[in-house]
Amino acid sequence: MEKKGSSSLNIALIHLDLGIGTFQVIVYGAFLPRHIFYHLDAVCAYLRCIFVAVCVMFIWPSFDVVLADQVSVVIPFMKLKKSTKVVFYCHFPDLLLAQHTTILRQIYRKPIDFIEDVTTGTSLDPGFVSCMADLILVNSRFTASTFVGTFKHLHARGIKPAMLYPAVNVEQFDKPHAFKWLDKRLRENVEYLEELKSLADRKVVSHKDEHFGIVPLEAMAAYKPVIACNSGGPVETIKNGMTGFLCGPSPQEFSSAMEKFIRDPQMAERMGSEARQHVVESFSTYIGQHLNQILLDIARGKDLPRLSQERTI
Q: Looking at residue 306, what DSSP letter applies?
């Protein structure tokens, strides 16, 4: 990305498992485990991200902007360089996604949740606000409301996240054989792929209270109308009755929506085409352009509250 002048803008994207897209990807810490016998995933993720942050600090020159994705533990490290602006993209508070079902898991999660709380900025003394990100982005209005309710100290200080929907590369889903690159190292990806294969001749169905839900977008990009729960992120991405159906979380409502597609294949095809157009217009290149502007404004030190504008659908 370039400034409007002659100089370039140096941007670093720190992501735990970035392996898709056209970015130049440099991997640090590949020798560090992703888990220990399928346990301690969060601890391993934190250690790997800290290692990457230290490498960025000492190996690379200063960046104008660092975009930290999902794992907030890298933020204090990046803010050690005073000239660097940090943008944190929160998909959903991890402390809400983690299980706290047993005493042992509660003990295990306690320090991890505390670190997330502190590095996101909620428990820091006002004198150390500089350790926080310069801007916090979330992936949906649903996540924004959850974020505010979870990190109440930030909200009390008047700090609110801006919203930026994730984007979809629609070219990956062109007819007739649309597919998406799959990282088979993630067991949940493989399991979810098998579930999607069983639904391939029908329509994709999403879970209740998805914080955003990239799968419905990918399905619509592949010319498939979507049946989803009328809660969470899908409410913001699916046009009910036009690109799919939003239903209550009951077998009766879902089966009724599926019956409509079975009885009227032409309607399903028409809604699929509308779904594809909807993703192209609202969740593809526009998102990248909006992110570019956000990063430019951050680097130039412009006033940030205006960046929280939402695009309704």
A: G
Query: DSSP string spanning 149-209?
Result: HH-HHHHHTT---EE------GGGG-SSS------TTSHHHHHHHHHHHHTTTS--BPPTT
List the structure tokens of 163: 């919203």
CB of 120 closer than 8 Å to CB of 132:
yes
How far is the C-alpha of 245 from the C-alpha of 234, rounded, in Å?
10
Q: What is the tens place of the pLDDT at every residue in 34-87?
A: 889 888 889 999 999 999 999 888 888 778 899 999 899 999 998 888 888 999
User: Does the reported pTM lie above 0.85?
Assistant: no
Amino acid identity of 133?
A: A
Q: Where are the alpha helices (DSSP H) in the chain?
A: 41-59, 75-78, 94-97, 103-120, 141-150, 152-156, 187-198, 214-221, 234-237, 251-263, 265-282, 285-299
Q: How far apart, in whole angstroms, are the C-alpha atoms of residue 200 and residue 224?
A: 10
Rounded Cα distance between 217 and 182, Å, is 16
DSSP state of 126: G
Q: Give the integer Cα–Cα distance in Å for 232 and 142.
A: 6
